[in-house]
Amino acid sequence: MFAVPANSPHLRKSGSRPVVYDLDEFEEENGADESLLHSVEGNDSRGGATPMNGSGMMPSPVLLWRFKVLLFLIWGCICCKIGWDSVMRMSADKRELFLYEAFLYFNPLLLAALMVWLWGINLWVFAQGGVNYAKIFDLDQNHLTHGEIWKCAMWMTIIVPTSMTAYIYLYSHGEVAYAASQPVLLYAAIVMVLIFPFDIFYFSSRYFFLRTLWRIVFPLQAISFADFFLADILTSMVKVFSDLERSVCRMVHQQVATIAWLEADSVCGSHSVVIPLVLVLPYLFRFNQCLRQYKDTGEKTSLLNALKYSTAVPVIFLSALKYHVFPEQWTNFYRPLWLLSSVVNSSYSFYWDVTRDWDLSGFTRIFKFSKPHLFSYLLYGRRWVYVWVIGSNLVLRCTWTYKLSAHLRHNYLTVFTIAALEIFRRFQWIFFRVENEWNKMNNKSHMQLSTSEKSNEEENLLHSMNYNV
């Protein structure tokens, strides 16, 4: 049996509180350690034999970090070498189709890993900037820190390409059955980790994530900030869901590692009617949330927000009609409608991002770090930051329409790049959306505080008047 540290984050209990060190306490402990070290050195100089503490033999964090980076680079080079040699073993006519199939199984997980990496950066910036994101999302004391998020992303980045390399290697060497098992085992392992019922592997965070997903699919109660925030992120990952649907479809029909079944009109092909249905699901979930918010609050802005998500539906279904109508009908009638609906969706979404989700008046504090840092001087209060965010958001909103269009899915590398850029756009969006919510919470608390102080002053004044009478 291997000895596991008691404070390991992988074994953190859902009811336990993570250890948080205060800066002053940390300095005091460092001072104590230094004094202890001086005393040990003094004893050594006098000839006394004092056993060395085991913690003193641990490598420095910087050295350990560099060693991990070196191992990561070596691993990446090995995977690239094995994958390239395996692909070169295949015939030229089979190579492109096989890469397309391999890309189908593993690219949604790579995009998900990218989102996790960027979410860790979001949390790190919030922590540096003094934004209490745990209060905004109503997280418990066991929520994952940015370091733990990055650790999860690192393992995803290692496991997924390793499985992909094994898939390519086994198929190129004639082990088709073993190659077909690679994506199946990978997907099964991910599902098992998410639904693992025991109190390990960040149980409370997994439970919070799955519970939020359930509330998104079935909005049977009041919508919280975490509910519609995650639903917004899901709308930026429709590429992931559509490819997951086709991957699972091929697994169910035992078509993994069978290039002959990659025809577009097959049951799991790119012309399947299931693809637009999967693409539209995140927008329908968000649409239902807006209706539920209007029912609970009566705010008309919720209806306008619901209208925004409904504009994505014509883009998706008009695009899918290309494979089910005559070419003349598509060129003369449906394509102009598709272009019009794309412009409406992109314009409306961009307007809502800037004026509603972000609220330009809130562009004042998100890059103001509580501690001196390089980002403080590069980002905070710079006009180019806002110009870049607004300009890139507009461009990426327009290109995202390309991804929503099912009839443009044949160029999978281009679509993958656009999907990654959309995730990056959402990464930028998160900064200002959370900042805007944090400002609203602070303003609300200040208003409540001023109201309570005013009522106390009125009571004191009334009491003094009665006393004088």
From TrEMBL:
Record key words, sorted: Membrane, Transmembrane, Transmembrane helix
Keyword Transcription on entry: no
Membrane topology of the entry: Multi-pass membrane protein
InterPro entries, per database record: EXS_C
One CC-aspect GO term: trans-Golgi network
Positions of transmembrane segments: 63-84, 104-127, 152-172, 184-204
Predominant subcellular localization, coarse grouping: membrane
Taxonomic superkingdom: Eukaryota
Protein localization: Membrane
Pfam families reported in the protein's UniProt record: EXS
Stretches assigned to the EXS domain: 266-465
Database matches in PANTHER family: PROTEIN ERD1 HOMOLOG 2, XENOTROPIC AND POLYTROPIC RETROVIRUS RECEPTOR 1-RELATED
Record's protein name: EXS (ERD1/XPR1/SYG1) family protein
Gene: 11412767
